[in-house]
Design goal:
The radius of gyration is 14 Å and the shape is globular. The chain starts with a helix and ends with a helix. It has helices at about 5-20, 30-40, 45-50, 55-65, 75-94. With about 90 residues, it is mainly α.
């Protein structure tokens, strides 16, 4: 499967999870776990079998929430993410 097709398919999954599991909007870890469960993962070993990339989940969640303004996180979480992003940016500059 090529990257474009993987992202389209994974994006559909992420959109579904964000819509039907609101608690996942505030946590990439919860988002990843719920997506993995929907793909059939029941154990940690199953994660290797389903080949769901956590970085892809994170990037797609960012795109959906920050650019498309869908299924956004709580205001408190948005502020935490904003401060963290600024801190990372400052670290990378130095």
């Amino acid at each position: 499967m090529d990257v474009i097709q993987e992202f389209k398919t994974t994006k559909q999954l992420v959109l579904h999870v964000l819509e039907y599991y609101p608690e996942t909007r505030n946590s990439d870890n919860q988002l990843y776990v719920q997506a993995a469960k929907l793909l059939g993962a029941e154990t940690l070993d199953d994660l290797n079998k389903i080949k769901l990339n956590m970085v892809s989940i994170h990037k797609l969640r960012q795109q959906i929430q920050n650019k498309e303004h869908l299924f956004e996180a709580d205001e408190e979480v948005k502020e935490i993410r904003k401060v963290r992003e600024k801190g990372i940016r400052n670290y990378m500059i130095n």
